[in-house]
Write a structure and sequence with these properties.
Elements (H helix, E strand, L loop, with lengths): L1 E2 L21 H16 L9 E2 L17 E13 L4 E12 L3 E7 L4 E7 L2 E2 L1 E5 L2 E5 L9 E10 L3 E2 L7 E5 L4 E4 L19 E10 L3 E3 L3 E8 L2 E12 L6 E4 L1 E8 L2 E8 L7 H6 L2 H12 L7 E5 L7 E3 L6 E2 L11 H9 L8 E2 L6 H17 L5 H11 L17 H18 L1 H14 L4 E2 L1 H12 L4 H8 L9
Parallel strand pairs: 2-5, 3-14, 20-21, 21-23, 24-25
Antiparallel strand pairs: 1-22, 3-4, 4-10, 5-9, 6-7, 6-10, 8-9, 11-12, 12-13, 13-18, 14-17, 15-18, 16-17, 19-20, 22-23
Length: 484
Amino acid sequence: MVRTGERTVGRAFGLAVRTVPRIHAGLTVCLVAVALAVCTGAPPDPDRPRAGAADVGDPYVPGRGNGGYDVAAYRLRVRYDPADDRLTGHATVTATATTGLSRFNLDLSGLTVGAVRVDGAPARHARDSDELVVTPARSLARGTRFAVDVEYTGVPQPVGNTALGLGGFLATADGAVALGQPDSAATWYPVNDHPSDKATYDIEVTVPDGLAAVSNGVPAGRVSGGGWTTWRWAERAPMASYLSMLVIGDYRVATGTHRGKPMVTAVAASLPADGPAAASLARTGEIVDFLADRLGPYPFDSYGGIALAEGRVSYALETQSRPVYGPSFFRSGRPDPVVVAHELAHQWFGDSVSLARWRDIWLNEGFATYAEWLWLEHDGGRTVERSFAAHYAATDWSQPSVDPGRANMFGNAVYQRGALAVHALRRTVGDEVFFRILRSWTAERRGGNVTTADFVALAERVSGRRLGALLDAWLVGGSAPALP
């Protein structure tokens, strides 16, 4: 994620034990939870059917995510008419019960549900604010694989986010954009809306003839009939829900290949065909190749990018396999390959290797910001050492990178201080070991979910050095660390 303008920052908060480095605070919480379970009795029997949790328990996104099941795949079939902004959808969610379930929740904001079926049988359903509560005809045993079909309709709405601006589902003059972090997916389909539950996607979007409908993954063909065209997309690598997107409207869509994989770019027709947005996206393959040399093989089956003309989108977002760029990055009249490098770096850091909890968002943004520094140096701009020196001098060290607080999850400490920590690690272990750490991280954790403690453990294993104190000082210490 990159947004234009100044980023707000603030003091982190939470519990910590003084004798334990703060980046390992999650372990302390887990030990406390185990102790409480022992004191209060045995944990609930996972085989006894009960209601799945209506909240995954991440304080950065209260009310988002659900418990009791693990989603394997989403199949989304939606029809959108810009004439009245109405969306009609049919979602099939395939999941496995991780505990006995008498009922479970899906996140869904503001749309009307017509029918729900579980494994083909009608199921009771009710709305509780932004939750869809599903009660199957029969309870689901732990380990059961099941499919939920949801039919729904309505006029989807955007969501406000004071840190980033408008997100969610935005109706535009010629179509719509569904985009945003951390909230967007639940505005247009029922979902377990937290990055800890990644899944594959098949997305079919039907729109009036003449409009494009671009989404994630490999293009799977399109068919037309009766004045409507259905565009099909398939993302076979596990994807966090906030990385799913939908862009509908008048776009110049170009499809080619890069290193044997599809490359799909889309530029709003109102933007110049030879303008800075198109020129920036044209460097996607070059930038991916540069990053792959340093980070390891590109993790997905397709490439691309989308340039919007919608001014309400004031950020760029690393939507999986095909980042989306708001128009503000190109208003200077010059291409901006640096933002492209940032969002493409996220394909490794954030998309393939994803967060277990939002408190560790520096693992996304710190590494993507560092990739900007690498690209700038490679492209003839400022060296990495000069970027490091400039940001070291300007950083407010009272603001932590790890667990920055919900209001500051997109603050400078997450981006710039995170990148400073990455370069401090490089200075400490040397280039050969540093890039081996990065390639090991992206290979071993590909497709999974991670924490800061996971990264520290891997870096220590690969380097053969104790690095916890170093990273603690650079990520959460309250004063400027000594230069390594």
